[in-house]
Design a protein that fits this description.
It is a single chain. By secondary structure, this protein is an alpha/beta fold. It has a single domain, classed as Alpha-Beta Barrel (TIM Barrel), CATH 3.20.20.220. 40% of the residues lie in helices and 14% in strands. It contains 11 helices and 10 strands. It has an 8-stranded parallel barrel, surrounded by 5 helices. It has a two-stranded antiparallel ribbon with strand order 1-2. Strand 4, helix 3 and strand 5 form a beta-alpha-beta unit. It starts with 8 loop residues before the first strand and ends in a 19-residue tail after the last helix. The structure holds flavin-adenine dinucleotide. Flavin-adenine dinucleotide binds next to strand 5, strand 6, helix 6 and strand 8. The site of flavin-adenine dinucleotide has 24 residues, from strand 5, strand 6, helix 6 and strand 8.
Length: 333
């Protein structure tokens, strides 16, 4: 076989095509991601679910919970629908987690459109049910209207955190925005707000999702420079439906890099390939973060377990010994 470079070819257009091997050898060289070290401690994980609306979605949620439970997340959180619309379902889901699983649940709680009294009452009912961790959020005004604090309410999440700490000795997590909250007065003001939430008694922040690892790493630098020392846990959203993710990202201020669109281009009608692409995209993101020292991750599961499970596996997380080898063993619960 002849291993010499193939000669330059002159096309009909007159352009000279460089010899293939020469082209390959002139590009930049990348070291690649480090292989996981032997004995490397797996990261701490948390998983987020949303409360189901129908019996079918309830089955899906519980299948998801059972599938992910053996990965022993340090906590799992359940969202609170816009304006508290899922109050009863969030409560029921969290209470069932406490009753029927080994998981430590965290209940999301928003203060938008509610009096302090009613928010405190919800918090107390969580405490009485045995819930010890709240993800404290302001929440959003209904689509199309501007946020106005309730006259007797907690105006912002920092106020809610302080209120919750008065109700009981909750562990409190709050939200952070690597690309700045969409309606913040400025990035610095938003960062001050994050600091206020932590100073009010929150112990960690979970970020809005992002796609470029560098967005998160730059944000960590800014947090440190602002004197924040609490954990800032990256929120990871494994994208399984690009069109939907792009639409949602526009609303919540997460930028969608052009390369992400190119990755999913042409997979619209091919769910199998789309899932493979999704796994690679998310795996690259978390591996890059892990290589940069990040050892805590929060997954937006969207009540679907497989991508989250696969990415957790890639990060080095394995199911508890007692349940190893029996994926989804507990069925739909
Ligand atoms: C991890 C995570 C989980 C979420 N879970 C839910 C959920 O379960 N249910 C739900 O409805 N939504 C949820 N959200 C969305 C969240 O409710 C919205 O992003 C909401 O717009 C902001 O909530 P916050 O807690 O960050 O608010 P805040 O921290 O109060 O900030 C809201 C905005 O107000 C600004 N601000 C704060 N204080 C002041 C002040 N004193 N004066 C002027 N401006 C101020 C901030 O800079 C920011 O722009 C979640 C978001 C994240 C990142």
């Amino acid at each position: 076989m002849n291993h010499s470079f193939s000669p330059d070819k002159t096309e009909a257009s007159g352009l000279v095509t460089p010899p293939t091997l020469e082209r390959w050898l002139t590009g930049p060289r990348f070291a690649g991601l480090p292989a996981p070290a032997d004995g490397q401690t797996p990261p701490l994980l948390s998983f987020e679910f949303f409360p189901p609306k129908t019996e079918a979605l309830e089955q899906q949620l519980w299948a998801c919970i059972r599938r992910l439970e053996p990965l022993r997340p340090r906590f799992v959180s359940v969202t609170y629908g816009a304006g508290g619309s899922t109050q009863a379902r969030t409560h029921a889901t969290v209470a069932r987690m406490l009753r029927e699983t080994s998981l430590t649940p965290a209940a999301h709680l928003t203060c938008v459109g509610a009096s302090r009294e009613s928010v405190d009452a919800v918090a107390r009912s969580y405490w009485e049910a045995g819930v010890r961790h709240i993800v404290a959020l302001r929440g959003d005004a209904p689509a199309g209207s501007r946020y106005e604090p309730h006259a007797d309410g907690y105006p912002f999440a920092a106020d809610l955190v302080a209120g919750l700490r008065r109700v009981a000795d909750f562990e409190v997590s709050v939200a952070a925005y690597p690309e700045t909250h969409p309606t913040a007065l400025s990035p610095d003001h938003d960062l001050d707000n994050l600091k206020r939430k932590l100073d009010a008694g929150a112990t960690r922040a979970i970020t809005q999702y992002f796609f470029d690892a560098s967005v998160f790493l730059r944000f960590l630098d800014k947090c440190l420079a602002a004197g924040i020392t609490a954990s800032i846990v990256p929120g990871i959203m494994p994208v399984s439906n690009y069109a939907q993710a792009a639409k949602f990202s526009a609303m919540c201020g997460a930028s969608v890099p052009a390369w992400l669109g190119r990755m999913f281009e042409g997979t619209e009608e091919d769910p199998e390939i789309r899932r493979m692409v999704a796994a690679v995209v998310a795996a690259e993101q978390v591996r890059l973060l892990q290589a940069n020292g990040v050892d805590e991750f929060h997954f937006y599961t969207l009540n679907r377990p497989d991508l989250t499970y696969a990415i957790a596996h890639i990060l080095g997380v394995r199911p508890a010994a007692a349940t190893a080898g029996t994926p989804a063993a507990a069925g739909t619960g």
